[in-house]
Amino acid sequence: MKAIKILYLLVGVGLLVFVLSQTDLELLWLKLIETGWGIFFVLVVYAAAFLVDTIAWQFTLPSTRFNFHWLYNLLKVRMVGAAFGKMLPFSAFGGAPIKGFLLKRHYGVGYKEGAASIILVESTHLISMIFFMASGVALILFDSNLPQSYSTFAMISLGALTAGIFGFYIILRLKITSIAGGWISRQPLGRRLEKFLHHLEDFDERLVQFYTGKRAHFFGAMGLNLLNWYMGALEVYIVLYFLGNPISLAESIILETFVELVRAGTFFIPATLGTQEAAFLLATGAVTGQSALGVATAMMRRAREIVWLVLGFAIGWQYSASPSELVHAAQNEMDKDATG
After folding, report:
1. What's the rounded mean pLDDT across residues 61-70?
2. How far apart are the C-alpha atoms of 15 and 276, rounded to whole Å?
3. What angle do CA 61, 270, 153 make, to 5 degrees?
């Protein structure tokens, strides 16, 4: 597993080196200098988007209350989880064990509820992503300045993502894992897994209860996540404005759609290193005619990610002596909970 992680990281590094080799680095540096205080506004938008995302997550945690105290605590947990998740492959769920551990150890939220909430908020995140990308693909199809290959790539990628996400939702909604677990439990090996299968059935019940019994929370979380996607496009708009090449909001949605389509297909690379830069290089070059602007935009995003990583790890140190100890503590606690 470590060898695979290293391989993914090397692929990302290699792609980043290739992107930089295709870029006028002197022009890139000048563009970044031009932004001035632009990074401040980017951080403000990103912080607001992060807050919206945290509120959406709270919709999936029934044991919490909607007040400033809980929102502040969940925001800290999200920041720590995001910091660790960015450094691991499969970043969407990379920080999930950390978040589950912190919720249980410091705020009394059980692992079952915490794990279910993470799956639920990710499912609403993915469903809302389809709606956002559908609007982006529609704009791409009506943009006559983009090459036909971009439209083809966008439609095929959106179709594949929609099929995959819809299949994931159906598995959760119809409790297919519980049905499969029931069949396994009737087999000789299944008796040894009886406790695990019982936990799996309870987990599925929590998911279905949210989808069917708490529709207001479900649609609320999905609506907030959809808003979050458009705030990502707003971030692109602000970055290019401060880079001295303003674009329309529609074009910012197109750029964000392209980048997210690429990121979704390369989720296994830690922090999508290299892939984000390559996507911005190609998409921004097609929209503005200046590929260096795309790399500069990607670098601005990396800058705000670094700031957020530092903040996340700093908060993590409040919970534990060091990041490595936090990881080991989370793993040990969850192992005990699974076998206890």
Report:
1. 89
2. 10
3. 95
Segment among 104-108, 133-137, 246-250 with least mean pLDDT: 104-108
What Rg, from alpha-carbon coordinates, does the chain have? 21
How far apart are the C-alpha atoms of 92 and 267, rounded to whole Å?
A: 8
Assess whether pLDDT exceeds 70 at residue 119. Answer: yes
For tokens 């951080």, what's the residue?
Answer: 43
Q: For 242-257, what is each residue's pLDDT tens digit?
A: 888 899 999 999 999 9
Q: Which long-range contacts (CB under 8 A, 24 or more apart) does 330-338 make?
A: 330/97, 330/98, 330/100, 330/101, 330/102, 331/97, 333/101, 333/104, 333/105, 334/97, 334/100, 334/101, 334/111, 337/104, 337/111, 338/196, 338/199
Joined together, the tokens standing for residue 68 give 């400033």
Tell me, what's the pLDDT at 8?
66
pLDDT at 62 over 80: yes
- What does the pLDDT average to over 93-120? 82
Tokens of 26: 């002197």
25 vs 236, residue with greater confidence: 236
The helices-and-strands tally (H runs, E runs) of the chain is: 15, 0
User: Could you give the CA distance from residue 16 to residue 193 in angstroms, rounded to a whole number?
Assistant: 45
**Complete DSSP assignment for 8-63:** HHHHHHHHHHHHHHTS-HHHHHHHHHHTTTHHHHHHHHHHHHHHHHHHHHHTT-TT
CB atoms within 10 A of CB 152: 10
Q: Greatest CA separation found in the chain?
A: 68
Angstrom distance (rounded) from CA 269 to CA 189: 35
pLDDT at 323 over 50: yes
Domain boundaries, the chain: 35-69+105-268
